[in-house]
Design brief:
Layout (H helix, E strand, L loop, with lengths): L6 E6 L4 E3 L2 H8 L6 E5 L2 H10 L1 H6 L27 E9 L2 E9 L4 E12 L1 H19 L5 E3 L2 H9 L13 H16 L6 E3 L2 H4 L10
Parallel strand pairs: 4-7, 7-8
Antiparallel strand pairs: 1-2, 1-3, 4-5, 5-6
Length: 215
Amino acid sequence: MAKKQKYYVVWEGREIGVFRSWSECEAQVLNFPGAKYKAFDTEQDAVEAFQNGHEDYVRMKSGRSDVTKMLPDYRNLASGGPDLESLAVDAACSGNPGKMEYRGVYLRSREEVFHMGPLEQGTNNIGEFLAIVHGLALMKQKGLSLPIYSDSANAISWIKQKKCKTKLVRTDKNEPIFDLITRAEKWLRENNYSSPVYKWETRDWGEIPADFGRK
């Protein structure tokens, strides 16, 4: 079965506009601070989202079938929504294993705080684990106690166990990733931290703001 065509909107990147392939989109946003982009199923939806602008897109209330993929305006949520003074983290992996990257985003402004990768021969779960530890270490370094949200139950479980329980086989290509894992596990064993780690409720809140937009 042929892969379904996706359309990619880049609101902030090296070049902005609507792109017809992930490779074209990636060239505009990879390692670009504060990049804003999203994948769409139809060209019409992509064009409309680009023309309306990023802020209108994330606040839009719609009855279309893709509404669950949209980022809600958290300021309008009733009690029980995420804490705006927090860090949201997520990972992406092209293949399993494949090129892996992760990042952290300040929830209130949706500004990218850190970004690592891409690194060869990783997995999404590893990226999620490393992203949380990166966030915890950063918060401690800055003397902050902001909550950290992740949409990965596996990664949160690994954090509690202070162990990345991946089944990925170590190779020469992914040695840099395993070096990061070793350092992350060591940090968890040797450090206390005050930032709580919470599960991001995608069903209620939409995609986590750190999402790489490749779904």
